[in-house]
Design a protein that fits this description.
homodimer, about 140 residues, alpha+beta, HIT family, subunit A, 5-stranded antiparallel sheet, 3 helices, about 20% strand
């Protein structure tokens, strides 16, 4: 999918702070994180949403989400983590390539506020810290 | 877990509008739904959160979540569905038995507002409609 920003990240045509990669799945940091450590986990194959992806790909995607949720917790230092997967515009989907958000939360946080961009330097630092915690 | 409301539902000690059940997983409607069709999917075994549940249980849980997301879409008539799994109080977890929300969304919806209770009659109607769409 030439015009899909996540496909471009997967193909290394666009930069991202990559946290995890295997033959089927990639994870990288959101550049407009709700909080530090806000990670996006995507299948490498282009599926628009959960409806399009086969069952076994969804199962595998969420085993990686679990693995990375532990790593984000250990890197960011909070077990308060919201896992979110939006389908369709009215559910808040913005990029139409299936993705799962791993979002560390703080007390009183509102998840769907507009976020500030985070600098590439800070994203790279976050990614490094999370990568070190992957077991 | 004697004091866990979801364990009580699983053991049929408390009523709920059940959408799906197999040997490992149960799904029932939230009695304070964000919108009609708001479904909760839980492992029958008591795990507090995603950290406690083994990888293979998480994978299986989300294959059922996918299956039920299709059914909720077909029953409610919207593909705008948000899948949410909260860990710890600061991430909005209220019942400390691992659960996944399947939440049909409408334009302009805010997910974390206080919801009204939905009558048992309407919940039973919703559950019946979703059950009929499970493939």
């Amino acid at each position: 999918m030439d015009d899909c920003v996540f496909c471009q990240i997967i193909q290394r045509k666009m930069p991202a702070s990559i946290v995890y990669e295997d033959s089927k799945v990639m994870a990288f940091l959101s550049h407009r994180p709700v909080n530090e450590g806000h990670t996006l986990v995507v299948p490498k194959k282009h599926y628009v949403d959960i409806y399009e992806a086969p069952e076994e790909e969804v199962a595998y995607l969420f085993t990686i989400v679990k693995k990375l949720t532990h790593a984000v917790r250990d890197a960011i230092g909070t077990s308060a983590i919201r896992i979110v997967q939006n389908n369709s515009k009215n559910a808040g989907q913005v990029v139409f390539h299936l993705h799962v958000h791993i979002i560390p939360m703080k007390e009183g946080n509102h998840i769907w506020r507009e976020n500030d961009f985070r600098s590439t330097e800070l994203l790279e630092k976050d990614a490094r810290e999370i990568r070190q915690k992957i077991k």
